[in-house]
Structure prediction request, 350 residues.
Amino acid sequence: MTAHVETPPTGALARRFPPVAQLVMASLALAIIGAIYMASKFPRRPPLALPTTLVVASALVALVAFVLMARVRDFAWPRFRLVFGWALLAYAVQAGMIEYALVKNDARGAPLAVFTLMLVMFALDVPFLIAFTSARYATPPTPAGA
Amino acid sequence: MASDAGVAAPTGVAAPEAPSRPAIQIVPVKGLPIVAVIVVLLVLSIAENWGWALAFFHVAGGGLWTGIDLFVGLVVGPILGRLSIPARAEFSARFMPKMVLIMPTVVLMTLAAGFQLAVNLGNLEPSNPNHNWLVVSFVVVGVMAVIALGLLEPANIAVLFEMRKPVPDGEVIAKLMQRFVYSAGILGLMQVATLIIMTRVATQ
Prediction:
């Protein structure tokens, strides 16, 4: 009979990070809930109090996540910037398509502005998640002179 | 895809003197022109309200999206979960770059064309019998989007970066693949709800 011994994670898995990914997922979820609410009222003009609250909350949660990530020591920033840049390009195209479909269907004024902010959060949160997940397992650059 | 030669096995499996291998491409560049053509046609379809093209993009995109999610989540995922780590790495190196291009494209086709169709058909009007079903479908898509964009896609891309390292970490690949397999399974099950809703909307 052999005993199974749980071995603690080693290498990149052993590093502990603040809950950046969880917070950005929450931010994304808030923006998506707001977008679903507004889309469910389209083409009528929706009440804006709830979606505005949701998009502001989404931005604040993403900001907290960014601050937490910025405080991580020895973070692979070059990897984060590389992945974030390319993913941002891809998701900006996606968000742009959705925006275009709304404008084409006569969305105007404050509702369009709030929906646009939600799309901005979408286009930022997804690259943020992809880039953070890629960077957290990457080898951080060695400081000059080290 | 860049690597059709060998994929280095993860830590503990690869010999240090393993032969050099071509870099794994995260995004298959050869596929980008196809995506660009699809996006341009989609924009034209929405701009000109081409009914046939909108229906094609929505039905073809939705069929592919649902089919791929079901197949990957309920067939490929469980098989992948039972493979050895080197085998998973080998499979993922060839499979995941394709998914990086295919899935966002079919999702974009489905949602953009679907929204335009819903507006044109009046399905979004609160008085329309399909309105509530569409709102439910928005919720299902919203939950799927959070899982796919928040868990599955980051894991997918992080695995590819890990496999580009000279000596990939098998533990990291296993953890990320596990996340991929579970997320794909949940998405596959949620696509059943999409099938129920969309067949109901189409026949109401």
About this structure: Residues 27-202 of chain B form one domain.
